[in-house]
Amino acid sequence: MTDISAPPGTADLLRPHAEHVFAAELTALESSDDRPRPPHWRMSPWAVVTYLLGGTLADGTVITPKYVGARRLMEVAVATMATDRALLLLGVPGTAKSWVSEHLTAAISGDSTLLVQGTSGTSEESIRYGWNYARLLAEGPSAAALVSSPVMVAMRTGAVARIEELTRIPADVQDALITVLSEKTLPVPELGIEVAAVKGFNVVATANDRDKGVNELSSALRRRFNTVVLPLPGNEEDEVRIVSDRVADMSKSLELPEVPAAIEQIRRVVTVFRELRSGVTADGRTKIKSPSGTLSTAEAISVVTSGMALSAHFGDGLLRPTDIASGIVGAVIKDPIADQVAWTEYLEVVVRERSGWAEFYQACREMS
Questions:
Q1: Is 292 in a helix, a strand, or coil?
Q2: In angstroms, what CA-CA distances link 122 with 96, 170, 172, 189, 278?
Q3: Which of 158, 170, 303, 317 is the most exposed place for a label (fewest CB within 10 A)?
Q4: Contact 250, 305 (CB under 8 A)
Q5: Per-residue pLDDT averaged across 103-117, rounded?
Q6: Residues 214, 293 within the same domain
Q7: Are the C-beta atoms of residues 58 and 32 closer than 8 Å to each other?
Q8: pTM for the whole thing?
Q9: pLDDT, tens digit, 9 for 90 and up, residues 307-355
């Protein structure tokens, strides 16, 4: 019989937290870091940026890059976290906002689990505090009956709290953050007390303005954030590298084929997504219709991972055009009418005439 009280080892987890996966890198950075550290930070801002962007330490330890993009963006984000201003990572879906948020908190606090996941059903208690109703009914309001939110825990310990998809949270619930971010306190009127933030406390939130169900931030709340906009990868090589690295990480836990065998198809997926996003082919010669979806890097990772699963379990272990065709069609055609027109035009005008893409063209035609 399985002992549910014993936590599984990191190797057995489908998705371990960043501070566990990269524990060796974090420890090496922490031990070699001799620069000034803000209160309750695990390492200096310089070391946090090195952890995010990668590098080689004096002792030869290689720090793998977690984010591929402009260094200045990460420097601004980390510098913001060292002030009393909260950080808002803004961008279209799939620009690594949540990924950066998780790794920021892992490097700064050593704990990325103080998380509020924003949805249309997120309540004010998720940001402030709740109650153990059995104890509340039995004993009345008391400190023992209080259930701390991740934000309250971060305030008490001088850590960083994460709020994912802030604009998915109803506007009146969002505004529960105003007092926390401006006064650095969280009143508990039922007990006649307040929780004051310890030095080191901060909030990093993510948001996008492209999904349905978005609730605009009030001007009062937006003023309490410094905003860093994360763009889509600037060039094809960067995007291929991001997709390859992330798929390689996922493949290890899922025991799928090695990524090098899939690089040709990864490049094909990235090319298709980039051309459809921009509305023009890579050589700039042909204008095409763009579908309604964002066709983000995250979706490219999903398409490739699904294709590798198909290849591993129903193919010969090598990623082929037939394995990625269904994923691409599903990612592109969100609107069955308008997107179908755009996709069909792209297949016939661009893919059909492209050298070496005949098998891919045929596979996509069959799936469409």
A1: coil
A2: 22, 7, 11, 21, 35
A3: 317
A4: yes
A5: 97
A6: no
A7: yes
A8: 0.88
A9: 989 988 888 888 899 999 999 999 999 888 899 999 999 999 999 999 9
The encoded tokens of residue 263 equal 């690089």
255: nearest Cα among 185, 305, 196: 305
Tokens, residue 40: 């309750």
Q: What's the confidence (pLDDT) of residue 168?
A: 92
Mean pLDDT calculated for residue range 225-242: 92
Whose structure tokens read 């023009």? Answer: 280
DSSP 33-79: --S---TT-SS-HHHHHHHHH-EE-TTSPEEPPS--S-HHHHHHHHH
The CATH number of the domain holding residue 146 is 3.40.50.300
Same domain flag for 168 and 263: no
The pLDDT of 60-66, averaged and rounded, is 94
Residues in the chain: 368
Q: Tell me, what amino acid is at 60?
A: G
**282 and 214 within one domain:** no
Looking at the fold, whether 181 and 199 belong to one and the same domain comes out as yes
Domain end call among 229, 259, 280: 229
The mean pLDDT of the chain is: 91
Number of folded domains in the chain? 2
Q: Assess contact for 231 and 315: CB atoms under 8 A.
A: no
In single-letter form, the type of residue at position 69 comes to: G
Q: Is residue 19 part of a domain?
A: no
Co-location of 120 and 177 in the same domain: yes
One domain for residues 205 and 279 = no
Selection from 308, 332, 331 nearest residue 319 by Cα: 308
Domain ranges, residue 184: 70-229
Residue 123 neighbours by CB under 8 Å, 6+ apart: 173
Task: Give Cα separations from 283 to 269, 278, 350 (angstroms).
Answer: 16, 12, 11
Residue 20, domain member (yes or no): no
Residue 239: closest CA among 304, 285, 290, 286: 304
Query: CA-CA distance, 319 to 165, in Å (whole number)?
Result: 33
**What pLDDT shows up at residue 213?**
64
State whether 282 and 337 are in the same domain. Answer: yes
Confidence tier at 4 by pLDDT (50, 70, 90): very low
Average pLDDT over residues 59-84: 94
Task: Specify whether 225 is located in the same domain as 240.
Answer: no
Instruction: Please report whether residue 30 resides in a domain.
Output: no
d(CA 270, CA 49): 27
